[in-house]
């Protein structure tokens, strides 16, 4: 492959000709996408369209079969030598991935640890931050997501919405340059969705670069700077949310939105 051109001021995410298959199923069939700093990009599409796989390729939880993903001007999982991508050492991957926060559908909190300990674990273990400093930063983040009173609680004592807000605080504790959200409200009861979306709106307003896989069309319409519609592993349509959601030009986009709106 040609060596990716590094820029003095690169976009936060640059994806070129991204392909990914699982067995005979080609999930991503050639994705090209550039995301600037401070953008909030919502990925829309039916289940199986490739949205979550694309997110997982961005932070190298999945290794692309072809093409490349640059985050902050660097390949997360590899180094280019002699025109080919070679897998980076695990320590390199971990260091580069630490700049990317990810929030999953499931909260994945450690049930035997308090909320405060869940949030401080990665800064202490990965970034070697002193425990006192990590706890002070964690308390600030918990206040930001409205959970300062729950620092000493355990995940099992929290609602699903509260657990997801802890998961967001945990991701923010690593001071990421980019936040990825993979359907963060899909596992929540409807009455708990709003409290998580409010935290995400606050993040967007603060200038955090975010890529969000979501079926929450209201959030996409009101918060995203760009909506990207995927179908069968390809980007079919993208643009301002008011255009993609309000006046889509592609038949597949219109058919999808007719079902979800």
What keywords describe this structure?
alpha/beta; four-stranded antiparallel sheet; six-stranded mixed sheet; disordered N terminus; 261 residues; globular; 9 helices
Describe, in plain words, how this protein is organized in 3D:
- The chain is an alpha/beta fold and 261 residues long.
- The protein contains 9 helices and 12 strands.
- It has a 6-stranded mixed beta sheet with strand order 8-9-10-3-11-12, with helices on both faces. A 4-stranded antiparallel beta sheet has the order 2-1-4-5, covered by helices on one side. A two-stranded antiparallel ribbon has the order 6-7.
- Strand 1 (13-22) and strand 2 form a beta hairpin.
- Helix 4 (131-144) crosses helix 5 (160-172).
Beta percentage is 25-35%
Mean pLDDT: 93
Order of helices and strands: EEEHEEEEHEHHHEHEHEEHH
Secondary structure tally, helices: 9
Tally of DSSP β-strands = 12
- Assembly annotation: single chain
Give the % helix: 25-40%
Low-confidence stretches: 1-7
Distance between the termini: 41 Å
Based on secondary structure, the structural category is: alpha/beta
Q: Describe the biggest sheet?
A: 6 strands, mixed
Broad shape:
globular
